[in-house]
Amino acid sequence: MQSVIDRFEELLKQDDFREIRNRVGVLRSEFRKKLEDKNDELREAFIDEGGDPDAFEAPVDPLEEKLEALFVIYNEKKEAFKLEREAAAAQRAERERQRKEANIQKLEVQKGLLEELKVVVSSGETNGEALQKIRDLQNKWKANGKIDPEEMPSAKDVQLDFSHQLDVFFHNRKINLELRDLDQNRNLEAKRKILKEMEALIGEEAIDKVAASMRKHQSDWNAAGQVPWDKKDEIFEQFKTLADQIYGRIQSYYDERRASAKQNLEAKQGLLDQVKAINIEELKSHKSWQENTSKVIALQADWKKIGFSERNEEIWQEFRSTCDGFFASKKHFYENLDANREQNRLKKIELCEKAEQMQDNTDWKSTTEFFIRLQKEWKGVGSAQRNVENELWNRFRSACDAFFQSKKGFFGQLDEQQDKNLELKEALIAKINATELSGEGGKDVQMLRAFASEWDAIGHVPLKEKDRIYNAYYKAIDAKYDKLKMDREERVTMQYKSRLDNLMASADAEGKIRRERQNINTRIDKLRQELNQYENNLGFFAKSRGDNPLKKEVESKIEKIRKEIQDLRNKLKTISTAAKKKEEAVAAPVEEEKVEE
Q1: Is residue 234 domain-shared with residue 112, that is, in the same domain?
Q2: pLDDT tens-digit profile of 161-219?
Q3: Are residues 477 and 513 in the same domain?
Q4: What is the pTM of this model?
Q5: Residue 112 contacts residue 143 (beta carbons within 8 Å)
Q6: Is residue 595 part of a domain?
Q7: Are residues 453 and 573 in the same domain?
Q8: Which of 82, 227, 420, 477 is a plausible cystine mate for 188, CB 3.0–4.6 Å?
Q9: Which domain holds residue 207?
Q10: Which of 407, 389, 461 is nearest to 429 (CA)?
Q11: Going by C-beta distance under 8 Å and a sequence separation of 6 or more, which residues neighbour residue 364?
Q12: What sign has the CA pseudo-torsion 405, 406, 409, 414?
């Protein structure tokens, strides 16, 4: 049922209410089905324990309340979806109203533009400024948008009047252009004079003088105004040809100067980058500092060989500052070198002492982690003085080696003991298989419990053999219990009592029993998760017809898990019963021994 709640919660996170609405009914039905199944199981358990079927009342499941709470959220989303649709309809009506209102506003804008156009036309001006005003008014008219004349017939009259005013303006402009031709012929003569002066600059060698003259000619050319239309391209091509030729000479001259300054800047930047590339943090020795000092001095010598560059003063200040920083760090290194080595010596002595204190510790796991951390810490400590560095390293390594050799020897003996345990358990299995039952139930049960106690008393076996030897043992012991024709639940309980007796008789019995409970509860929780998953999977076969092998397999696994959960619960009951008996035995009063007179 929790899985249904979880899916319901995930479903409610979606934005598409239609998708939520389409799937919510299936989740409700699935939840009710699971709740009914759960109540049926509780009712059966109630009856099995001797309860009256008519007296059974299903408890209120907290998940039922959670489901109702989720349906509150669902109904809120449903109401929000309804309001959203109503709001959308209202928005469409509002847009239609706004469209009509916009047409009214457009018409008002058109009327205003028409009045502005009439002012320009009535002024009689047709020059460029007036033309620009006309173009602006046309653009504003287009930007304002069209109006459907069927909706607003008055808009058509405004449009016709606007077009008429434009025709009047452009008619007047045509007349004025004829007068302009006279001015353009005078401008043509002025530009031809400028071209002759430019031709005189072709042989001039003083590039600075040529550049200054060209700036004046360019200004005069632009001020001369327009020439006749049929001469425009011809005169412009003559100007462009001469200007390109002259500016080409000027450009080549300055390009050469800029290229040299740019190359020098690149060379200086390269030297600066080499100084910056020296990682001062990595210079930990006298040798490394001397090597890099020689490198910086050589780079300074190369700098002096390079001429003027772009950003000349700026890049020189940066280069000098970087070099000064290098030599300042070098000075600081040598001032602190002896002090750092002494600190490193004291730190390494401390690490040696820690290693020597722990080298005989037999808590292998935590001590191994301790030594690994210690070794990493050693690597992070810098060098001590040369006359003690090797001595400290040998001392530290000796302590580390002593621990790891002891650990290696211990686990070597442990492997030998596990091999012996494996032989003992295989012998016990053979003994169980060879033993015949006497036919006396009580005597045979005691014998099988003795076998279980003997099994638990034998220690661990190699990990790779654990599952094999475990399965062989239970196969042998189960075969004997099968001959006793004991109930399965009784057999599991009987077998577990042998293990429990050994746990309660061992050292730290209370701690071992507590861990045993924890392990059983952990296993039950894991099995419950598996059971929920298989039960969910079983729902996929609800519509399957006839025999379905996959469905039978899932049903078989569900039955197996339920039996294992029941076995584990019986073990918990056995532990509780044994613990209670032990408490009663401890709490019972001790009778005083009578002494005969």
Answers
A1: no
A2: 888 888 888 888 877 777 777 777 888 888 888 888 888 888 777 777 888 888 888 88
A3: yes
A4: 0.29
A5: no
A6: no
A7: yes
A8: 227
A9: 186-261
A10: 461
A11: 407, 410, 411
A12: negative
